[in-house]
Design a protein that fits this description.
With 365 residues, the protein is an alpha/beta fold. The protein folds into 2 domains: 59 residues, DNA polymerase, domain 1; 293 residues, TIM Barrel (Alpha-Beta Barrel), CATH 3.20.20. It has 11 helices and 14 strands. It has a 10-stranded mixed sheet. A two-stranded parallel ribbon has the order 1-2. Strand 13, helix 11 and strand 14 form a beta-alpha-beta unit. The structure holds iron/sulfur cluster. Iron/sulfur cluster binds next to helix 4.
C-alpha cells in the first residue's frame, strides 16, 4: 500500500506501529526499537536513531514524522508542581500538570480541548469545548514532561503515575485515549503498571464497561454528589447516566478479572452544597460495599465561580463520618494553587465551538 502523507509515530501503540512497519516492507520488531527511541530517549529526529540503517532512516523521513507540540509556557509552583501550556493548533492550547510527592510523581494529562460536560465547580467546564485530542497530542504531554524533567531510561522514574484528570472527559474520547493508555503501559515506552494509569470519568456508563475489555487500567469516578437532584446540577452528565445506572457500572468494573480492583471516588467539597452530615450519610448508603477509596477534594476557586470551599471543620467532620462507617477516606492536599494548576482549575486556551452562551448543553435524550 502506498503511503501518501506522513504518518505520526508518536501516538502509535505497538500494534499500530508494527502494522506500519509491515506496511513499509520492514520487520515488525522495528516498532519496539523506534518506540524506545521516541518514548524512552525522547528522540524525535530519525537521524538520531542510530541502531537503524541509514536506508531505513531515509525511508522514515520520507513517510513518517514524530510530531510534538509547541511549549507555550512552563510555570513552577512554590510547592514543586509544574504546569505546561502546550499549543496543539493555531487556536487552542491544553494544560498538563506534574505533581511531585515524596513517594511518587503524578502527571495529570488532558484528553480534550476544553470539555462539553459543564460540571459547575470546574474551570475547564466553563471554557467550552473545541475537539477531541488525537493520540499524539495526548501522549505528547508525557513525552514533553519526561524530557523537561530530564528523565533517563533505567533511572528511577520521576513520573510514576499518570491520571487522565486534566482538561476533558477521557471516556468521550476512547478512540484516542485507549491507545495512549497502552503506550503508557508498554515496556518499550513508559512501562507503567495498570495500577499507575488512571482514567477519571464523570460517569460515561457505556465506556466504563469497555475499559476492562480494552485497556484494563484503574478508574476514578468524579462523583461529587450523593443523590440525583444534586448531581444533576453539579455534574449535568448525571441527567443522562443517573446514579442507578452509574453505580452498577462501577460494581461491574471491580468484579471479575484476575486482580483485586477498587474505584477511586472523587468528591469536591463545596461549602453548604454537598458537605453536610446528611450528604455524608447518603454517600455511605450509596457506596454500600463497593470496593473504593474516597478522595475529598477541597474546592479550588476560579474567577466568577458561585461556589466556596468547605471549611476545614466541615471537611474533617465529613471525613470522620465516612471513616467511622468503615470507608477508606482521605483529604487531597491542594497543590499548585499559586499557578492555577490545582484540581478543577485547568483552563488552557479554548476556542469554544459549543456556543454555550446561547445554547446550554442538554444531556437528556
Ligand atoms: S470535571 Fe472533568 S468532566 Fe467535568 S467539566 Fe471538568 S473536565 Fe469536564
Amino acid at each position: 500500500m502506498e503511503i501518501t502523507e506522513k504518518v505520526d509515530l508518536l501516538g502509535m501503540d505497538r500494534a499500530a506501529m508494527e502494522a506500519f512497519f509491515t506496511q513499509i516492507g520492514e520487520k515488525p520488531f522495528r516498532a519496539s526499537q523506534v518506540m524506545k527511541w521516541i518514548h524512552q530517549h525522547g528522540v524525535s529526529e530519525f537521524d538520531e536513531m542510530t541502531n537503524l540503517s541509514k536506508a531505513l532512516r531515509e525511508n522514515l523521513k520520507a513517510v513518517a514524522q514524530v510530531r510534538t507540540p509547541k511549549i507555550v509556557s512552563e510555570q513552577h509552583s512554590d510547592d514543586g508542581t509544574i504546569k505546561w501550556l502546550l499549543e496543539v493548533d493555531n487556536h487552542n492550547c491544553i494544560e498538563t500538570v506534574f505533581i511531585p510527592e515524596k513517594s511518587r510523581g503524578t502527571l495529570c494529562i488532558s484528553s480534550q480541548v476544553g470539555c462539553a460536560l459543564e460540571c459547575r465547580f470546574c474551570s475547564t467546564g466553563q471554557q467550552g469545548f473545541n475537539r477531541n485530542l488525537e493520540n499524539w497530542e495526548i501522549i505528547a504531554q508525557m513525552w514533553v514532561a519526561n524530557k523537561a524533567l530530564g528523565c533517563k531510561p533505567k533511572e528511577e522514574r520521576k513520573i510514576s503515575n499518570v491520571v487522565f484528570m486534566g482538561m476533558g472527559e477521557p471516556l468521550l474520547n476512547v478512540t484516542h485515549v485507549f491507545p495512549v493508555a497502552r503506550i503508557l503501559m508498554d515496556d518499550y515506552a513508559y512501562g507503567l503498571s495498570k495500577r499507575r494509569v488512571t482514567i477519571s470519568t464523570a460517569g460515561v456508563v457505556p465506556a466504563i464497561d469497555k475499559i476492562k475489555e480494552e485497556v484494563d487500567v484503574s478508574l476514578a469516578i468524579s462523583l461529587h454528589a450523593p443523590n440525583n437532584p444534586l448531581r444533576d446540577i453539579l455534574v449535568p452528565l448525571n441527567q443522562k447516566y443517573p446514579l442507578e445506572e452509574l453505580m452498577p457500572a462501577l460494581q461491574r468494573f471491580v468484579e471479575g478479572g484476575h486482580s483485586k480492583k477498587h474505584v477511586t471516588v472523587e468528591y469536591v467539597m463545596l461549602d453548604k452544597v454537598n458537605d453536610l452530615p446528611e450528604h455524608a450519610d447518603q454517600l455511605i448508603e450509596l457506596l454500600g460495599d463497593l470496593p473504593c477509596k474516597i478522595n475529598l477534594i477541597p474546592f479550588n476557586p476560579f474567577p466568577n465561580t458561585e461556589y466556596v470551599r468547605s471549611s476545614n471543620n466541615a471537611i474533617h467532620r465529613f471525613q470522620q463520618k465516612l471513616t467511622d462507617a468503615g470507608l477508606n477516606c482521605t483529604v487531597r492536599k491542594t497543590r499548585g494553587e499559586d499557578i492555577d494548576a490545582a484540581c478543577g482549575q485547568l483552563a488552557g486556551k479554548v476556542k469554544d465551538r459549543t456556543k454555550r452562551t446561547v445554547h446550554r448543553v442538554d444531556f437528556k435524550d
